[in-house]
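Backbone-to-sequence.
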């Protein structure tokens, strides 16, 4: 990811569900209106609600039509999100119930991402325990190792999103597995729970693994996620990303459900103005 400048995208789920091509077209129109260059697509069903791009539903013709539609709006696919959960836990790689089905679905998502030319799949797999002797740690290690091996085989990256555990715990897990296909989707707002300083320190700790980022913020007073209006120290954060060699996507994410389009526009404008003012 070295070289070039940051580019701004939008997570498609900030604009609701993508159940069919009509939803997708409406969302892409908004993303173009926001002024972004890229879109991260959602690619698994929403529980009982179908998703257009679920790999069990979206075959070769569907994938071709989606790719053509994205391109027709002058956008690029930054990657995909395959967020799954078990009946009991968010992420679900830490729960044996139904785990084989979640592994299989994630593997198919990686194949879809590689086939569509944007070989990044992000997710929260579950909270990684600090103690490697914890049975849940072993369960997650074994299951994610299998997924990462398949990612290696198809030329894709399986990216764990930051925030469910401290950055040192995530780094030790990544080092333990040692797969070149296991990477990080860095979300600075998710790390605010550990303090503002963790946002910056986390980039240094996880730098070699960062291949995709979410641009999200959080203001505890307004509960707003608008980038530039919360606690994330954006100037210092972007400088840290550049220091570790990351020059990839900053993908705007707003899950508040309130004035989302205007929030995304303000966030995009904030980031563009900030990037212009960064030192060469």
């Amino acid at each position: 990811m070295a070289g070039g400048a940051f580019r701004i995208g939008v997570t498609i789920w900030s604009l609701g569900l993508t159940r069919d091509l009509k939803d997708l077209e409406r969302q892409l129109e908004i993303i173009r209106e926001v002024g972004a260059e890229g879109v991260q697509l959602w690619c698994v069903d929403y529980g009982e609600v179908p998703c257009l791009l679920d790999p069990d539903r979206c075959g070769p013709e569907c994938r071709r039509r989606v790719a053509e539609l994205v391109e027709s709006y002058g956008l690029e696919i930054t990657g995909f999100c395959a967020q799954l959960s078990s009946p009991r836990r968010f992420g679900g790689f830490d729960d044996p119930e139904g785990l084989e089905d979640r592994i299989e679905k994630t593997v198919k998502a990686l194949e879809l991402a590689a086939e569509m030319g944007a070989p990044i799949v992000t997710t929260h797999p579950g909270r990684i325990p600090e103690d490697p002797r914890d049975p849940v740690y072993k369960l997650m290690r074994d299951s994610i190792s299998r997924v990462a091996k398949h990612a290696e085989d198809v030329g894709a990256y399986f990216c764990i999103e930051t925030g469910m555990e401290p950055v040192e715990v995530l780094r030790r897990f990544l080092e333990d597995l040692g797969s070149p296909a296991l990477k990080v989707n860095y979300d600075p707002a998710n790390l605010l729970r550990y303090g503002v300083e963790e946002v910056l320190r986390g980039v240094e700790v996880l730098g070699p693994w960062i291949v995709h980022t979410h641009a999200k913020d959080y203001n505890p007073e307004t509960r707003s996620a608008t980038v530039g209006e919360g606690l994330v120290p954006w100037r210092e954060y972007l400088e840290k990303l550049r220091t570790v060699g990351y020059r990839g996507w900053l993908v705007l994410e707003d899950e508040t459900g309130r004035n989302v389009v205007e929030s995304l526009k303000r966030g995009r404008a904030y980031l563009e103005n900030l990037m212009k003012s960064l030192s060469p």
